[in-house]
Amino acid sequence: MNQDVKAVWVEALRSGNFAQTNSQLIALDEEDTPNGYCCLGVIMEVRGCQKDEDGQFVNTGRFDLLDETLLLPSSSSDFISPSLGKRWGITPDQQAKLARFNDDGKSFKWIAYYIERYL
Predict the structure, then answer these.
(1) Does residue 12 contact residue 42 with C-beta atoms inside 8 Å?
(2) Strands 57-59 and 49-51
(3) What b/e sequence results for 29-55 when a residue is b if at least 16 CB atoms lie within 10 Å of its CB, and e otherwise?
(4) Contact, 87 vs 70, CB < 8 A?
(5) What pLDDT shows up at residue 79?
(6) Which of 5, 62, 78, 107 could form a disulfide with 48 if both were Cys (CB 3.0 to 4.6 A apart)?
(7) Domain residues of the chain, as ranges?
(8) Is 51 helix (H, G, I), strand (E, B) or coil?
(9) φ, ψ for residue 21 (rounded to 5)?
């Protein structure tokens, strides 16, 4: 995994700044404000990708890629897009495992430890 991406991700997961949700990357409330994140949604957020009021992922201007529009997942996706995952060095199998940990109730701190140790 890209070590810079990993460091930012692990720090964000441990920060306490993100409420945890499951079954979607980023959950929005009635006012389209993020109110929960999957562990994979946290990395999307801290790397500059957010959901808009239509539930589509958009670049907030902080995105770290040249052609981000080709790399954003669909709004219904539970995973990072394959091309973005490749850029960041996280495979679909690794994403599935992390999503399973998240949806099974493992804490963000536990997931951060796993990422740090095994990815």
Answers:
(1) yes
(2) antiparallel
(3) eeeeebebbbbbbbbbbbbebbbeeee
(4) no
(5) 79
(6) 62
(7) 3-113
(8) strand
(9) -135, 180
